[in-house]
Design goal:
The chain is an alpha/beta fold. It has 12 helices and 9 strands. Helix 9 crosses helix 12 and helix 11 packs across helix 12. It starts with 6 loop residues before the first helix and ends with a helix.
Amino acid sequence: MAYLGNPQNTILVLQKYNFNFQKKFGQNFLIDTHVLDKIISSAGITKDDFVLEIGPGIGTMTQYLCENAREVAAVEIDRNLIPILADTLSEYDNVEVINEDILKLDICALAERKNDGKPIKVVANLPYYITTPIIMGLFESKVPIDSITIMVQKEVADRMQSGPGSKDYGALSLAVQYYAKPEIVANVPPNCFMPRPNVGSAVIRLTRHANPPVEVQDEKLMFALIRASFNQRRKTLANGLNNSPEIHLSKEQIQESILALGVPVNIRGEALTLEQFAQLSNIVKESI
């Protein structure tokens, strides 16, 4: 069995298939067995689990997942990788490779078919340009998820777990923390990948909350307020909301809502906690 965590084996496979890395798919293949072990252990994968892997590449992590999980579905957008995956995963009978765009796949139906609708575990080495849409898509589509363990750009991982007042804090921090508890489990230097990316990476585990940590009457409205307040970081919260095409309130209504929250009217959005954004959206909901 040729494990792809070994760089020599990865090179042999790429040469055998004359594979060219696609910049548009942000392809960087992991070539470090320690990192692979860390991902599997952080995700807490057991023989009871059905795992959805996003972007298996040539199957490096997929091999590890197959050995540890009950069943794996690996969703790969790049057609050129499908014959390679058929080869590198040929020894496993508990994996299905799906040649689709994860953003267009009905993951709820997949979870229903493969796991009787019970919560699934998601593992991925995500291309940097598409990290946020994939994570938000997973959370917002109400897919039953236990946890998401992903390799992302280091600064994106920092953003996901940062709190009010820090420069990394923003709409992504709030959205992730509304749905899950984020925890960085490993920092991964560029030399663990082929080809080497220009930036450091991190593995972060997002453990899905059973119930959101705040009570909010209208999720959509809360996220519209969050987006509006971070769209123009240097502006006050009131100006951010006032300039947003998504928020249909007069200047007076906005100011009254902010004061009703019990904070200064000239506060900036980045100073508010998730709880305060939830309260603000409930206040705004009632004033509408």
